[in-house]
Design brief:
With 187 residues, the protein is mainly α. The protein is 80% helix and 0% strand. It has helices spanning 2-58, 65-81, 86-108, 111-115, 117-152, 156-162, 176-180. Helix 1 (2-58) packs antiparallel against helix 2, helix 1 (2-58) runs antiparallel to helix 5 and helix 2 runs antiparallel to helix 3 (86-108). The longest helix is centred in the first third of the chain and has 57 residues, at 2-58. The protein is rod-shaped, with a radius of gyration of 24 Å.
């Protein structure tokens, strides 16, 4: 009878461990998905600001057609890349930042544009959105770190592999030159 009680106790403890570990993994996975959603919302917000910014600059610099086309193309790539995952989104982000640098370089040549209240408001909103994107990236990467750590730790890795939990990709900057030489916006 005592042996049966010990066996039942071990089985209950094992089931409790599996249940708690599984729920913990699900919680971390949902947090990562929420964080990715936050990134896509901020990228969409930034992408929505860009046409207004381009139109503001176009009025002053009509001969810079290639710059505008590059920004528009890079914007579309960022929007489509968010559905493909962090690696593709990071690559599109790098291209987009390069296109924005070109746009701001064009704007530098037009003092009247820099003084425009509409342009200054767009610049402020863009800076605010960039800050939100950066915060969302940090939140996402923290969630990925926690999930990946839990998936790899023993004995949680046994539950993770049994229920097919997979590690997630970090949202990383691929172009290290972009880190060393950040986007500089001066008006």
């Amino acid at each position: 009878m005592i042996l049966l009680g010990i066996v039942i106790g071990i089985v209950v403890a094992l089931l409790l461990f599996v249940w708690l570990t599984y729920n913990g993994l699900v919680t971390l996975k949902v947090r990562v998905e929420e964080a990715w959603s936050d990134i896509t919302v901020q990228l969409k917000r930034r992408a929505d600001l860009i046409p207004n910014l381009v139109e503001s600059v176009k009025g002053y610099a009509q001969h810079e057609k290639e710059v505008f086309e590059n920004v528009t193309k890079a914007r579309a790539e960022v929007l489509s890349a968010t559905t493909k995952g962090p690696k593709e989104a990071a690559k599109a982000e790098n291209q987009f930042e390069g296109a924005l640098k070109s746009l701001f370089a064009v704007a530098e040549a037009y003092p009247q544009l820099r003084a425009s209240e509409n342009f200054q408001q767009l610049q402020t909103e863009l800076v605010d959105t960039e800050d939100k994107i950066q915060g969302s990236r940090r939140f996402y990467n923290a969630g990925v770190r926690d999930l990946n750590t839990k998936i790899q730790q023993f004995p949680a890795n046994l539950v993770a592999s049994t229920f097919n939990f997979k590690s997630k990709e970090f949202f990383e900057v691929e172009d290290m030159a972009a880190v060393k030489d950040p986007v500089k916006v001066e008006f």
